[in-house]
Amino acid sequence: MADDVVVVIGAGGIGLAIARRQGPGKTILLADYNQELLEAGAQSLRDAGYKCETHPVDISKRDSVSALARAAADVGNVMQLAQAAGVSPTQATPEVILAVDLVGTALVLEEFGKVISAGGAGVQISSMAGHRGEPLDQAQTDALALTPTDELLQLPFLDSEGVPTSTRAYEISKRANIIRVQSASVLWGDRGARLNSISPGIIVTALALDELSGPRRPIFDRMINASAAGRVASPDEVASVAAFLLGPEAGFITGSDLLMDGGVIAALRSGRWSVG
């Protein structure tokens, strides 16, 4: 009998937490661009008794994502996907963020939509950043939902004038993740599978630590202080939400986004803090 496979893209804190939560009794296929991070993450899982295979991937390249999807199907029944790979404003230019966080996510949803098994489920890790920033009009929203993946970067509002900073690139990419998940969930549904996204707030990962140690630290401090929770969260808390969305209790949920930010966006909407 073929193994059930959980594919985790992104060997950082959130990806590994999801792998640990979802991995028992399955084969974990762990993928990342950073080979050193990938092997270290896989070894930590194997040392804890998990069955784990690895595959390098550059999610900004269709050929690479397609090869990963085929490799996953070769391992067994692709029952779960967690896409947690991405870059942050402190780590990359607007062009790189759009290529990885926006186009890369669209490629993953598209290519794994071809191999996900009936009864399977996927979760995309977006960000609370997708719920803030300048709103998109309906035409822009429709374009992000329906434009062929390979043509996304040709959209006029994604040029250097429309996306002048890494922060804006991150916000619009994460908003696009939510929109693209909703659109792709229809095609996943044709295969009997579900697809949702999670928009975490400040989670203590290597990516978040880069942000917290950079020039945007005062912004994050204001977010935390204004939020109802008044704290940051751990990757294991994201994994708990992912477990719900990937599991049978969420069998009637697809095409949705779950905002888990400790109340940061609520504080923004109520005027407790402002982005500027």
Task: Describe what this molecule looks like in 3D.
- It is a single chain.
- This protein has 276 residues and is of the alpha/beta class.
- The chain has a single domain (3-267), classed as Rossmann fold (3-Layer(aba) Sandwich).
- Helices cover 45% and strands 16% of the residues.
- The chain has 10 helices and 7 strands.
- The chain has helices at 13-22, 35-47, 62-75, 94-112, 138-146, 166-190, 206-212, 217-226, 235-246, 264-269; strands spanning 3-9, 27-32, 51-56, 76-83, 121-125, 194-200, 257-260.
- A 7-stranded parallel beta sheet has the order 3-2-1-4-5-6-7, sandwiched between helices.
- Strand 4 (76-83), helix 4 (94-112) and strand 5 (121-125) form a beta-alpha-beta unit.
- The chain is globular and about 55 Å long.
Compute the CA-based radius of gyration. 18 Å
CATH class: Alpha Beta
- The total number of structural domains is 1
Order of helices and strands: EHEHEHEHEHHEHHHEH
Largest sheet: 7 strands, parallel
Rounded mean pLDDT is 95
Rounded to the nearest angstrom, the distance between the terminal CA atoms is 56 Å
Strand content: 15-25%
* CATH fold label: Rossmann fold
The quaternary state of the protein chains shown equals single chain
Provide a count of the helices: 10
Helical amount: 40-55%
Secondary-structure class: alpha/beta
